[in-house]
Fold this protein.
Amino acid sequence: MSVTVRLPTLLRPHAGGEAAVTVAGSTIGEVLNELVQRYPGVTAQVLNDDGTLHKFVNVYVNDDDVRYLSLLETPVKDGDEVSILPAVAGG
Amino acid sequence: MAAFASVLDLIGDTPMVDVSSVSPSPRARILVKLEGRNPGGSVKDRVALSMVEAAEKDGLLTPGKSGQVLLEPSSGNTGIGLALVCRVKGYKLKVVLPTNVSIERRQLLELWGAEIIESPGSEGSNGAVRIARELAAANPEWVFLYQYANEANPKAHYEGTGPEVWRDCPEVTHFVAGLGTTGTLIGVGRFLKEKNPDVQVWAVEPPAGETVDGLRNLDDGYIPPIFETLGGAALLDRKTVVRPRESIEWTRRLADAGLFVGISTGAAMAGAAKCASELGEGEEAVIVVVSADDGWKYLSTGAWTEDIDVVAERAKSIIYF
Amino acid sequence: MSTVLKLSREIYVQMVAHCIKGLPDEACGLLAGDPGEAEVMRCYPTRNLAASARVYTVDPKDHLIADRDAERDGHEVIGVFHSHTHTDAYPSQTDVDQAPDPNWHYVLVSLRDTHPVVRSYSIVDGTIKEESVVVLSASGSDPQEREAERVPV
């Protein structure tokens, strides 16, 4: 199964300048692992050292935030669009 | 702490405090030297004492002799410092004061027995200077110390403030102060550059034609003689313009950090912030800022409590220094 | 050389109106424009998920919608705006700590005083640097320097 991963501007330089890349996997966890293996430069901003999702990043499957689904366990199917965006917050 | 023999012995040796929590850059450490801790409440106590002692040394003033009159144009702190020194030493002081200074200043001058001669508020400190010079010419027996031309002014900083900064913070990379008589900048700037020629000296001035507390713009037509005779222009690495609104914003931000200081400190701090945010990549700085006085004399202006637009507008017509 | 962030009168009003509507909480939104250009072409008001007068979190769902919409127009998100209800238009420590992108413009709208104050900053490696904000007149030409407080150095 392969999905399209949309990357935020900040991560594009680490992925050869691409705005979107095609990645294989059946869950969000698998997709992200595949992504960071291909582009190690994006790791620090997406995953924590223990492999969990970084606090300051939001990941979506199509229109839904994976934090409201099953996080890294969230299943994906062929043709899904996965978006990664920075969390935007402040005081 | 020691017990001191005279109030005048309390002048100088002021503390410095780290305010890096409000620095716009993690690579810029900012320290504020609190001149409000002087007994007359401002950095000008140093200047007042230095000028009076120099006059005594030169024989212009004789300690203990009655009927000696001093004259000084001042929109505030120098007058207050002189009033204190004169009261303790027994001299009579006349201060030429613009009508639009805050009420606290007049009261401080009066409580130490100074006589106030008013000058037009619209002419600012330049008007006070003009009238004082006329009076000095008409009354040659009065001792006219004249901080703008008196080398004892920068000397107080060269011998006092500067060495204290160096003693407490030898890692200083930038020194930022307001441009008033230019005494602080010349005195401290020269001392620090002698110790370390790489120290950058930044002057903060108000926009031409506007009054911002304590500060003057050199393009406004009056260049203090000490600035010219002591090579002030060569000493300054940068002059930066700060508007009344910015000064008040930074005065309030310093209050957030726990510091209750006068509005010219906000202006100097705005200059330090500019310096901090302009650091090159990987460049680090230790910025020392002079806080000329504390906030007490400005409470009546509403600087901390009222709408900033109102306060900033008012700052254009009232002299706060 | 300091950056100048340009925006239209309409976007300026939209941004300030969204901040006022959000009171007593802080309000936030995203700004989009052409990549590499410091000109705001679209303003996307978003919900403040934190629903607080002290902090804000752009609703991730609104962020996704804005991001997709901007991309469709050939734009991208180039900055974020948020209000300070009781402090001035200057980034707080939290704003600095959580600044997501060094290329973004961080626009602050202060509602502390009678008139809203709009300022823009860059935040790179923790260093705050102010940018000029220029509100373009209706025709789009003849830019006028709006922030009278801006200081020439």
